[in-house]
Design a protein that fits this description.
Blueprint (H helix, E strand, L loop, with lengths): L1 H42 L3 H29 L1 H21 L3 H29 L2 H33 L2 H21 L14 H19 L4 H23 L8 H5 L1 H17 L2 H12 L4 H8 L1 H17 L4 H19 L8 H28 L6 H30 L10 H27 L8
Length: 462
């Protein structure tokens, strides 16, 4: 009885901490975009430097995920989570105190590193303490917290920035991180390190840390010559990474998982397709609503909140269902709904009603909510305990790559149809054509993802 009570307390603490940090990181990502104009004005940043404020965070997070996940499996997930959370909190305070562009970009980089370590170990800890029959529900709640953070960021971030300045975003975030830090440090007694004794793969880590940012940043700068060069260099580096990992005794990413674990491989592929198809939706609709429909930014933002709010509501339900029903069925239905929602958006024109846009976003939110937490449950539950950190890091890495691919596809379409010109009423027809084509490409991509989702193996036996 005492052991059961202890386990339940441990589960409550891990879930609470995961909810706090799963809210915190997307809140910071989405709210910082609102504050960029004010940051640029007060710190005298040009457009190029201003773009680095969100970009370095994403690049640092992406680079630290897989090495951090493997190190957590070896040295201890609690230990790495504390390190990542501590670095994140310290960097958040230093960002608030930054008085120059160089300082802010430096501390945003270290904040991204901390976030990567947290994400690499957070899902692994949830998976470690919750049994398979209750894991989907827990992961669904964590996923919902992520969407609430994404929804709250632009709204709360806008209010804070307007009344208290951009520094307030960091001052508000720091106490949430410190609360999570205290819960982990003083509330969790156990450590999880099922891969203890294995050596750390430094060669693979160095190749990945250099290649992944080049790949992601290069994709975001297409079709320019710099983007093509970086993308090519990053792609060569990723090929080299897989070659090195296939021969390493203790790789940071076991390539054999992709060949021997059908559920893991196709669930990861489905996640990559889903992120690649959906991340640019907000960007595209923001342009459509403000330029074509003539809405002010705050009204456009209020409409766009419809999707993450629906996702936040459906994710815990979908996670609970994934504990009882086959993930491939739930996730495939969700992927099909996302494809339908994107197809509806591909029909937008000047005369489209705002209610139509909201309805399409609701369909998208339902589909994404049905897909995301069951798919995450499939990835985490398809590997043995020694690889929970690697699986958790894989989820984060796939998300980062998918998000950048999504934006790259959208920007490439805009460049090909509109070109390197400012958006004026004279080119609104080309803008509508670009938006429609992007949504059509994403819909077809997501439709293909339905089949990747269906062919995965079973999560539940019997």
């Amino acid at each position: 009885m005492a052991e059961t009570t202890s386990k339940r307390k441990e589960q409550r603490i891990v879930l609470t901490v995961s909810i706090l940090t799963s809210f915190l990181t997307p809140f910071m990502i989405s709210s910082i975009h609102i504050a960029l104009p004010l940051i640029g004005e007060q710190l005298s940043l040009n457009a190029a430097l201003l773009g680095w404020v969100p970009t370095v965070y994403l690049l640092a997070s992406a680079a630290s995920l897989l090495p951090g996940g493997k190190l957590a499996d070896i040295a201890g997930r609690k230990k790495l989570y504390l390190a990542g959370l501590g670095l994140y909190c310290a960097s958040t305070v230093l960002c608030a105190l930054s008085g120059s562009a160089a300082a802010l970009i430096l501390f945003r980089t270290s904040q991204g590193l901390g976030a990567g370590l947290m994400y690499a170990t957070g899902l692994a800890m949830v998976t470690s303490v919750f049994p398979l029959q209750r894991r989907g529900r827990a992961l669904g709640v964590v996923t919902a917290a992520t969407y609430i953070g994404l929804s709250a960021g632009p709204v709360i971030g806008g209010i804070l920035t307007h009344y208290l300045g951009w520094q307030s975003l960091f001052w508000v975030s720091a106490p949430i991180g410190l609360m999570a830090l205290a819960l982990v440090a003083f509330g969790l007694k156990r450590e999880w390190a099922e891969a203890r004794g294995e050596s750390f793969d430094f060669a693979g880590s160095i190749i990945l840390v250099l290649s992944l940012p080049a790949l992601i940043y290069g994709a975001s700068n297409l079709p320019g010559i710099t983007g093509i060069g970086l993308l090519l260099a990053g792609s060569i580096g990723i090929v080299l990474f897989f070659l090195v990992e296939s021969k390493a005794r203790f790789p940071i990413f076991p390539v054999s998982l992709l060949a021997s674990n059908r559920t893991f491989a196709f669930s990861s592929l489905a996640a990559l397709i889903n992120y690649s198809s959906t991340f640019a939706v907000t960007f595209l609709l923001s342009l459509y609503l403000q330029y074509i429909q003539g809405l002010p930014p705050q009204q456009a933002g209020a409409l766009l909140v419809a999707q993450p709010l629906v996702m936040a509501g459906i994710s815990p339900v979908a996670g609970r269902l994934s504990d009882r029903f086959e993930v491939r069925i739930l996730a495939s239905i969700g992927m099909a709904a996302v494809s339908l929602g994107l197809a509806l958006l591909a029909l937008l024109d000047r005369q489209s009603r705002l209610s139509y846009v909201v309805a399409a976003l609701v369909v998208l939110g339902l589909g994404y909510g049905l897909f995301s937490s069951p798919n995450m449950n499939a990835i985490m539950s398809s590997v043995d305990k020694r690889r929970y950190g690697v699986a958790s890091a894989t989820v984060g890495t796939v998300r980062m790559i998918g998000q950048m691919l999504s934006m790259s596809i959208a920007v490439l379409i805009f460049t090909l149809i509109i070109g390197q010109v400012s958006i004026t009423p004279a080119i609104y027809p080309q803008l509508i054509s670009s938006v429609r084509l992007a949504f059509l490409v994403f819909s077809l991509l997501c439709f293909g993802g339905v089949f990747a989702s269906l062919v995965r193996g079973k999560l539940h036996s019997g």
